[in-house]
Amino acid sequence: MSVKRQALQLYLEGLGFRSVGRFLGVSHVSVQKWIRKFGSELDDLNSENEISVVELDEMHIYREQKNYC
Q1: Which pTM does this prediction carry?
Q2: Which tens digits make up the pLDDT trace of 16-64?
Q3: How far apart are CA 15 and CA 8, in angstroms?
Q4: Cβ pair 21, 30 in contact under 8 A
Q5: How far apart, in Å, are the Cα atoms of 9 and each of 14, 16, 32, 42?
Q6: Domain spanning 1-46 has what CATH number?
Q7: How distant is the alpha carbon of residue 26 from its chain centre?
Q8: Per-residue exposure over 28-57, b if at least 16 CB sit within 10 Å of its own CB, e if not
Q9: Of 18, 22, 42, 14, which Cα lies nearest the Cα of 32?
Q10: Domain parsing of the chain, residue ranges
């Protein structure tokens, strides 16, 4: 697996740029540039399907239950 793909997977798991960089032995600036490039490539993808289901984070549910909104 390529280092760039590993960086993306670690970032999507919640690690920050610096943590990913330390883990993979690369510069955090490189990690940031790779993630931005992946993101810009995703912007080019358009879905013709209508979104019918949205998944929310647990914190959103927690905040609503506690009336913090």
Answers
A1: 0.61
A2: 999 999 999 999 999 999 999 988 887 666 666 777 777 765 554 455 5
A3: 10
A4: yes
A5: 9, 11, 13, 15
A6: 1.10.10
A7: 18
A8: bebbbebbeeeeeeeeeeeeeeeeeeeeee
A9: 18
A10: 1-46
For residue 1, count CB atoms less than 10 angstroms from its CB and return exposed for 0-12, middle for 13-18, buried for 19 or more: exposed
CB 28 within 8 A of CB 21: yes
Q: What is the length of the chain?
A: 69
62-65: long-range contacts, CB 8 A cutoff, minimum separation 24: none
Terminal CA-CA length for the chain:
42
* CB contact at 8 A, 32 and 17: yes
